[in-house]
Amino acid sequence: MERVSKVEARANYRLLVEFSDGTHGEIDLSGRLFGPMFEPLRDAAFFAQVSVDEFGAPCWPNGADLAPDALYAQIRASS
To answer: Is residue 57 packed enough to be buried (19+ CB in 10 Å), middle (13-18) or exposed (0-12)?
Structure first.
C-alpha cells in the first residue's frame, strides 16, 4: 500500500495528494463532508489544517482521516 507523502488543501474542499511512489492528483471532498467527524471540515479554515499522520493518511486535528488506499485507487482511476 502506498502512503501519502504530501497533502495540500485547495479551494472548494479539494485536496492535492501525492503518494510515496510519485502518483499525485486532486480529490474533491465537497460531497463527502457529512457525519460527526467530517462536518467540522466544512469550515474552510479547519479544512486547511490537513496534514499527513504517521500511517501516511491525510488527517485533521479532530481525528478525521482518509484511507490512503481508497484515495490512491481514485486518483489512479481518474488518470
So the answer is: middle
Q: How confident is the model at residue 45 (pLDDT cuts 50, 70, 90)?
A: very high
2 Cβ contact list (under 8 Å, min separation 6) = 19, 20, 21, 23, 56, 68, 69, 72
**What pLDDT score was predicted for residue 64?**
98
Full set of structural domains in the chain with CATH: 4-78 (3.30.2020.10)
Q: Residue 79 pLDDT > 80, yes or no?
A: no
pLDDT of residue 37: 96
Interatomic CA distance for residues 75 and 57, integer angstroms = 15
